[in-house]
Design goal:
The protein is mostly helical. The protein is built from six helices and two strands. It has a domain of 47 residues. Strands 1-2 form a two-stranded antiparallel sheet. The mean pLDDT is 79.
Amino acid sequence: GADWTKALLDNAARPSGALIYKGPDGAPGLTEDQFARLKTQMQEAYSGANVGKPMVLEGGLDWHAMSFTPNDMDFSDIRNSAAREIALAFGVPPMLLGIPGDNTYANFREANLAFWRSTVLPLVSRTASSLTQWLAPKFGETLRLGFDTDSIDALALDRESTWDKLNAATFLTTDEKRAAAGYGAVGNDLP
C-alpha cells in the first residue's frame, strides 16, 4: 500500500539490496553471532551520512543490488487512487477522469449526466439563489437569477425525452406543455 511505497521512496526508490553469503564449501548460512555482527556493521558503516558509500565485503559475501520499476512500486495505482478519492470528494464520477478501466461510452455518458445532475446543476442553482438574495435588495425583490440548461450537451437526451413525453401528452394545452418544459406561456390554450 501507500506506506510501503513511501518507505521504499524514502530509501531511494529501491531497497538497498541483499547480501548473499556462500560459505567455503558453497553452503549458505551464517551463525546468529555472524549475522548480528554483520547487521550492526552495515547499520554503522552504510547508513545515515554514509549512505551510498562503496561497500567492502569479506570473503564469501556477495552484494546484489535490487531495484523496482514504477509499476512494481505501483505509482500509477497510487496516483489513480488519489485522483478517484479527490474526484469523489468533489462529486465528480471518477470515470470522467479518464482513468483506465472498464469504461464504455454508455457508462461515460451516464457518468457525465450524473455529474451534471448531481453536482453541477445543484451548485449552479445554489449560486444563482445566493446571487439573487444578494442582488434583490438593489434591483427589486422580483429579481430572479437562473441558468439555461438548453445549451448543455450532456443534458440533450433529458431534453429530448421531456419533449417526447410532453408531445405525447395530448391532454395538455400548449401553454401547459411549455410551462412543464420551463418556458413561458404564449397565450394558446389549445391542446
